[in-house]
Design a protein that fits this description.
alpha/beta, about 65% helix
């Protein structure tokens, strides 16, 4: 577990909790981890910048009040002192402003990088079921806009809080030296306004989380619209797709407006109470002056500093919103960073060979059982095919082997070792999966094949492509292996993407290969050649194939027929076809479908 993950887990045991502003600040501060010292330095510099601004106000006031005195005679020393104080104020604001911006920006970006890496690492280690149960747009929003919220708060929100207090504190200290009663009057409205501020902050917390969720929903609709644009246009549903996106945006807008309306009264109340300090200071200064307790210069000073005292504090309203939005973003990130990955073995074991055994295996998605007490073995360096009707549990068997999910009952063993007793890295190196839905990364064909082996040479990549019957079509492309495939492999046909994916699996050279409908998009011309490639592959690998296209499994050493989560038949192709069971029925229907033609009777 990374430092970021430990921090998030330690400070957010309840991801749905509504926190006060102080709690949110403590949580965001704890998130900074080893960068806290750097962030604190930036905050101190911002406070010093604001304090230097207060020094400028004080200098101006001293100059005015001195000049108003009847018996005052300016001297060279006085002029030099005023000039030095004004210069010090200006220079301090520039210097500390620059240092604060530089330090906090670098710290915020470093924190953002660490947080993104922690998120991606946790996403990698979470079970596949976690990802399938979530909307893709939600995860994308967390890695983009939510992350931006946190970064912006660290680089601007925290320093602005320090800035908001720097000038008022400087003024209050100055007033305290002039007259403690006037300083206390200036402080009174601040103390009364704080509870109102905190209450408004709590009301914003719940709406902030919901607002971020609605933003994620709108992003999901946008992603769905863009990715499905071909289908939407083909069925003339552009208006419907745009309407769905508009509806999500409208929901997001309505919630944002409701948030503003609910906050208007408490925030106006905070500002009103805070600004009541203006007449209070006027009254206190006038009362003390008329009573002969202070001079005219002190009374004038207090009147001149009124708005400089409360103006910066009013800016906390905007900071409060930034705090709540950043905290809401962290709460949403908690759903990933506090989600539990599959447990790792304390003392990982090494398999003795690469034979596979499914022992009394049971599994279900939620309350729905899929596999029921499944028991079979796959000898090392053989090809086993799994066939059956849709929903029989074939792909689930493959998904359980690399631990995309954990089994509900029983065990899966490789080389005599339960896969739960292996490290996830070791298990990943043992298995290559070629999925039914092929995904290629944006980049070149070479990059996508070499994804199976980071150090692969050109010759190794070409050898893998030849084994997957992909070399010929790749060489025919304008840029050959340097041809860019586009996002998801959009520039290639389905069959071409499938063969690149198989080449990637061959290059990885894992001892166990799982093919999930991997030949579904292969055209008849290349099907026989691909079968020959798979037959050559099985001499060195333990191969499990799931297929509806029964012609691709005829060469299998063993065929398992699944129905409703159970093995109902098992044997070689010829023996199963000669029988009268489910496989013979599937073969007959597949043969009829293969020979079907438009207009055929």
């Amino acid at each position: 577990m990374s430092d970021i993950e430990r921090t998030m887990t330690g400070i957010a045991p309840d991801a749905g909790a509504v926190r006060s502003d102080l709690e949110s600040l403590k949580r965001l501060w704890a998130l900074a981890g080893p960068l806290r010292g750097t962030v604190l330095t930036g905050i101190v510099y911002r406070f010093a910048q604001s304090f230097c601004l207060g020094l400028g106000f004080g200098t101006a006031i001293l100059l005015v009040t001195d000049l108003l005195k009847d018996d005052f005679t300016p001297t060279t020393g006085w002029a030099l002192t005023m000039t030095a104080l004004a210069s010090l104020s200006l220079f301090g604001q520039l210097l500390f402003g620059f240092l604060s911006s530089k330090i906090t920006w670098f710290a915020a970006f470093d924190l953002g990088a660490e947080l993104r890496l922690a998120m991606l690492d946790r996403l990698r280690r979470l079970p596949l079921g976690f990802h399938l149960s979530r909307n893709r747009g939600d995860t994308v929003t967390m890695l983009t806009s939510d992350m931006q919220m946190v970064e912006n708060f660290m680089l601007d929100g925290l320093p602005r809080i320090a800035e908001a207090f720097g000038l008022p504190i400087a003024i209050l200290i100055f007033l305290a030296f002039q007259d403690w009663v006037v300083a206390l009057a200036a402080l009174a409205s601040i103390l009364v306004a704080v509870p109102v501020y905190l209450k408004a902050s709590r009301r914003l917390a719940e709406l902030g989380i919901r607002r971020q969720d609605m933003q994620a929903a709108a992003a999901a609709r946008m992603i769905e619209f863009v990715q499905g644009i071909a289908v939407i246009r083909a069925f003339n549903r552009l208006a419907k797709g745009a309407e769905d996106f508009r509806a999500a945006l409208q929901t997001f807008r309505d919630l944002s407006v409701r948030m503003v309306l609910r906050l208007t009264l408490p925030l106006v109340g905070f500002g009103l109470i805070l600004m009541l300090g203006v007449p209070l200071i006027l009254f206190a200064a006038g009362w003390r002056w008329l009573g002969g307790e202070i001079g005219a210069a002190t009374a004038i000073t207090a009147c001149m500093l009124i708005y400089a005292t409360y103006g910066p504090l009013l800016s906390l309203i905007a900071v409060m919103e930034a705090t709540r939005m950043a905290d809401a973003s962290l709460t949403r990130m908690d759903r990933i960073l506090t989600a539990q990955p599959l447990p790792e073995a304390a003392a990982p074991k090494e398999p003795d060979g690469f034979d596979i055994a499914f022992d009394d295996l049971s599994f279900g998605y939620g309350e729905t059982p899929v596999l029921k007490r499944l028991t079979f073995t796959v000898p090392e360096r053989t090809m086993t095919a799994i066939v059956g009707p849709s929903g029989a549990g074939k792909s689930t068997v493959l998904n359980l082997l690399p631990r995309f999910w954990d089994v509900g009952g029983g065990a899966i063993r490789i080389g005599g070792v339960d896969i739960r007793e292996m490290s996830s890295e070791r298990l990943s190196r043992l298995i290559t999966v070629v999925f039914q839905d092929v995904y290629l990364f944006s980049g070149t064909i070479f990059d996508n094949i070499a994804f199976g082996k980071a150090s692969a040479t050109q010759d190794e990549v070409e050898a893998a492509a030849k084994a997957a019957q992909a070399h010929a079509f790749i060489e025919a492309l304008p840029d050959g292996y340097r041809t860019r495939v586009g996002e998801g492999g959009a520039s290639l046909s389905g069959g071409e993407r499938q063969r690149v994916s198989i080449a990637r699996a061959i290059l990885k050279d894992a001892p166990i290969v799982l093919l999930d409908e991997a030949t579904a998009a292969i055209d008849p011309t290349n099907e026989r050649a691909l079968q020959a490639a798979l037959a050559a592959l099985v001499a060195e690998k333990t191969l499990i194939v799931v297929a509806h296209k029964l012609s691709t499994v005829r060469a299998a050493d063993d065929i398992l027929v699944l129905d409703e989560g159970r093995i109902v038949e098992r044997g070689g192709h010829d023996d199963l076809v000669a029988g009268s069971g489910l496989y013979a029925s599937l073969w007959r229907h597949w043969t009829e479908a293969a020979n079907w033609r438009i207009g055929h009777k």
